[in-house]
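Forgive a beginner's question, but might I ask you for the amino acids of a protein and the tokens describing how it folds?
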Amino acid sequence: MPHPKVAMLDPSAFTPPYDRSLAAALARAGAEVELITSRFIYGPVPEAEGYGVTELFYHRATGLPSFSRLRIPLKAAEHIPGMLAARALIRSADVAHWQWVTYPPLDRHLLGRNPKQPRVITLHYPLPDPGDARALASQRKFLSRFDAVISHTESGAERLRADVGLAPATVHVIPHGPFDYLTELPDPEPLPDELAAVEGPVVLFFGLLRPYKGIDALLEAFGRLGETDAELWIAGMPRMQIEELQELAEGLPTFLVFHHPTYVIKDDESAGPDPDLDALIERHHDTIQAIFVGHTHRWIDLSHVYDIPHVVLGATRYDEDNFWVAELTEGTSDWRLLDEDKAVWNSVEGRAFDYEALSVAE
């Protein structure tokens, strides 16, 4: 096969830099490549070099502003016709390489079947937690439709074999390559003065900010370096709520405050990506400074439960001195309780405290 025809598909244009860098590399290696995608509405994309581009998907949805509430309904209406059109368009290709699909549970039925055309998918997104059997089974149903599944890391490949249950022969590791086109931009924008003045090493995360990219894990890992002359730069358009990320980046202490003690909060009351409260606390163990709860009304020290200061505070309706005052040091994670001795453990009472004397001493 001297010049294989490769159809590369990313319907929602989730990763244009990767798609186009790979397409250009395959073209340089002698393949005939057609990238089938949609218009990327968040910024410029690399020029096509040696390969073709067909913007087949979501014409109406991508014609609307990114903030329009009509984009999602329009995209849903255009999705099935687009997938069926793509099947017809790639029929003559020797290989169909999917970078993404938009909705795996549905799209696994829309990929079509062509025994003469191998199907490949690159796994760009994180897999479900190892204990989430239902979600892993869903991934197995979807990914088993492909003749080859590409992971960027060996750890990801091992999870595809062990947790998802894919046949080992179908799983391959291809490391994520560098975006070298960024070194050859015709009119690069200069850095702001405060960034251009940085002389130490820099870790750069750039692109759309999305939940699946693990930016919180990056921030927490960078924080564990301790004292360093390196800087972490995160630059891109947020497609998620970033207030929590900003707090992590600023090194602010994180305090959890609940009305009920953690041991009586039901598992299904947890929100977000964590299955229960224990999982949330464990995931953020290194950034949570303390847990304060109420309802039981007595002062109870539960710090041994999570190896974090974890206290049930006495209720102020039983004693008006049942409160603590914490001092936080600006720009650091340092904090301390100014009146810790007020607690009367296993009692509903609190001791009085001379705050005026404290302010004079300070």
User: Anything to note?
Assistant: The mean pLDDT is 85. The two ends are 80 Å apart (CA to CA). The first helix runs from residue 16 to 28.
